[in-house]
Amino acid sequence: MGGLSLNPLVAGLVVAARLVAAVDLKTCKADIQQRLDNNTLSRNDTIFYFNGTSYMSGPIDIWLTLPGCQTTCPNPNIDLYDDMWPRLLTWLVPALLLVGSVHLPRIGHLNRIFVILHFMGDPIDSMWALLTKGEVWNRFYSLALRRTLAGPDQEPMAKALAVMLSAFEELTGDMATVEEEFNAIMTENGAQLSKEDLDYILKETAEELVDSRSNEGLRTILVIVNYLWAVLAALVPEIGGTQSSQPGGRIGTAMFLSWLVTAVLLSNTLSGFTSRRTCLRIMERYTRTLKGKKRDMHFFPYSPRILAQAKRGKVDDFIDAQPWNGSVYSYRPRKRLTCSSGKGDWSPAFLLALSTMPVIIAAVSAFVIIWFTPTIGLGCRTLWVIALTAGLFISPILTWAISRTVHRGRTAWYATIAKDAVFGATGVLVILLSSIGIFNTCWCWSGVYSRGLAGAYIDLEPEDERLYNAHHLYPAMVGTCLALQVVTYVVMHRVMKPGGIVFRPREEEKMEQYRAIHGLTGSPDIEMKGPAARGRAVGGDRRESEAAPLLLPPAALGSPHGSPLLRPRAGSHTSLRSSGGVEDEHPNWHTPEYHLTT
């Protein structure tokens, strides 16, 4: 729900709203109308607003001055809306579902709550960090295209290389040294693998990394549809039922939260690994295979950030440091981008500007809707929109200041979350109080902040304006707001598209890559011996068996139609030994369960 500041203006609004009694406008109008009808109240009484020519005390339009409302209408027994619980359920549950649909990495329950707090307390920085992550993928993909040789295999090799570079960045959090780390591993080649073997292992590892990422797109669409249905219920009484007051406040609040739609879509577009430990294990196995080692490789000698941590007295465990070391895509204190290709790169300034658009669209839409909800003008609700929007822009500035002044990752993470908890909790509290009637007072209905005390008035039952807004203003503003949010997301998606095709291919593309890498596209007529032949005898044709592909080596070993990536090397003998030391009969069959030895 928006990064929102604990602001003197917000606190003043809440206090001022309670200094005057709560008001039931319908009951007040009925009471005054009855007194006018039985002549116990003059139509020229000073409680009525004078528009320059006459007092507004007609049978249809009854406008009261601010003092007149405060002395005539207050009902101390009605402090909040009678239907406050249905009001909360109308938008609160859909909004909570939206917040809960933000992609949450597996970093422990407490840290996952912290991720939500950061999203609520600093959506601009969260979306900026997500866009920066997408641009990192873009630049690595561009770099990979420049580093791979032209030919029919360039595109899949470039994608595989981009995935590997992105995985190194995922673990080290240091974009500038990724290429150097990767080249060091490839150059060492302690296992003395051929280029064909290196290419095959690279593609296999990249395919496993891509397949280890989560995809919650369908769930995200469902919760967004639920949110849109709640907005529709506020617009259409036949769906949401009648309410005790004008729907402008509810609709304005829903539009103020509309940035959640873009943020949730953006978060789930990038998604993440099912677990960072999964990424770490895959990369450990990759480096172990290339280096010819039997132990996991945890050391990245070319990453100054990790080396700087190692030189201190206390080093955070890699797993414990995940929240502030890259696992949370929506928290990225260092947004500097390297590996520039020039053409097609997006600068951090552009990404920052783009990340502010959902908040600007939401705030402007909410302000216009609430402004034109009678009494037209600047009231308590429009002021909280201004105050909370200011908090949305102050919060990322404070996040930046923390990242520049606090150098220890753990401390910066907790300081940022503490700040976001204050901003977010304040905003949620103000929105909740507004929704249940805390601003349902003569003062807040009078437009006093724009009209002044002398010009302030309260229209007790603005039925004409309400009908006009319900049929024209509200639908137009809601449609425009949501359409602009969708357009903003489309632009964000377009910005991240080059790198997104690497990590977020369609399921059909994943299966095609799997078949190509594992040799499942070749001819089944291959002479096999040992366990492979027995696996085929039991399972039949490998393309007709669900279990056999997991048991058979790539078809490239014996078929001219198989994968061209893996070939037996002349003059060398490569064997695979299991952890029990038994030599496998298929020397070129590489699976994660075995260590490669020469």
If you had to describe this structure to a student in words, what would you say it looks like?
With 598 residues, the chain is mostly helical. The protein has helices at 8-19, 25-37, 66-72, 84-100, 109-121, 123-147, 154-172, 178-188, 195-211, 217-235, 237-240, 248-256, 259-270, 276-291, 304-311, 348-371, 380-405, 409-436, 442-445, 448-455, 463-503, 507-517, 530-539; strands at residues 63-65, 457-459, 575-577, 595-597. The protein has 4 domains: 8-16 and 83-103 and 216-271 and 349-444 and 463-498, no CATH class; 135-214 and 272-341, no CATH class; 519-562, no CATH class; 571-598, no CATH class. It is 59% helix and 2% strand. The chain has a two-stranded antiparallel sheet. The protein has a two-stranded antiparallel ribbon with strand order 3-4. The radius of gyration is 32 Å and the shape is elongated. It starts with 7 loop residues before the first helix and ends with a strand. The chain crosses the membrane at residues 84-104, 217-236, 256-275, 350-372, 384-402, 422-448, 473-492. Residues 547-557 have a biased composition (Low complexity).
* Gap from first CA to last CA: 58 Å
Number of helices: 23
Beta-strand segment tally: 4
| Biggest sheet, spatial arrangement of strands | 1-2
Strand/helix succession: HHEHHHHHHHHHHHHHHHHHHEHHHEE
Number of domains: 4
Taken from the alpha-carbon principal axes, the silhouette is elongated
Classification by helices and strands: mainly alpha
Computed Rg = 32 Å
| pLDDT < 50 stretches | 2-6, 16-20, 304-315, 522-598
Strand content: under 5%
Mean pLDDT: 77
Largest sheet: 2 strands, antiparallel
Helical content class:
55-70%
Biased composition (Low complexity): 547-557
Region (Disordered): 521-598
Signal peptide: 1-22
Keywords: Membrane, Signal, Transmembrane, Transmembrane helix
